[in-house]
């Protein structure tokens, strides 16, 4: 079980998601009509990382004193893996719904991506590196930033459509 939880936890690793984000940018960047989708991926990820680090330093919450199954450093609140997972996979769900054809494909891909988000949070608690409140705060802050990014993208699309 621990090996599986470590693997799931890696799905929320900021560095893994930056790599996947670059692949997403390359894919969407090849299609001119998706230019702003391409630009939004790094903005959402980097903005989320900056927001997470800012919140960690504002709260200075120590990690659980339990026996950890992985070694980590830094502050605990909010969970960076949970926050970045919510932002990245949530953004991917949005982009799938905006850009993919076929309702069944959209539902299947979205369901898979949505399942990853809580799995990452649960893995961080299981591994002993976060309290449940860290994970919930990560999801909340990630949701806030995700909505801000999507509203910004929609505003740009609306403005561009008007021209």
Annotation keywords:
mainly alpha, 77% helix, globular
- What is the share of helical residues? over 70%
Portion in beta strands: under 5%
Structural class by SSE content: mainly alpha
Largest sheet: none
SSE series? HHHHHH
CA radius of gyration: 16 Å
Global shape: globular
Average pLDDT = 86
Q: Spans with pLDDT under 50 lasting ≥5 residues?
A: none
How many individual β-strands? 0
State the end-to-end CA separation: 54 Å
Discrete helix count: 6
* Total domain count: 1
Structure description:
The structure is a single chain. The chain is mostly helical. It has one domain (2-162). It has six helices and no strands. It has helices at residues 2-10, 14-29, 35-59, 80-99, 103-126, 132-162. Helix 3 packs antiparallel against helix 4 and helix 3 (35-59) runs antiparallel to helix 6. The longest helix is centred in the C-terminal third of the chain and has 31 residues, at 132-162. The protein is globular. The model has no long low-confidence stretch (mean pLDDT 86).
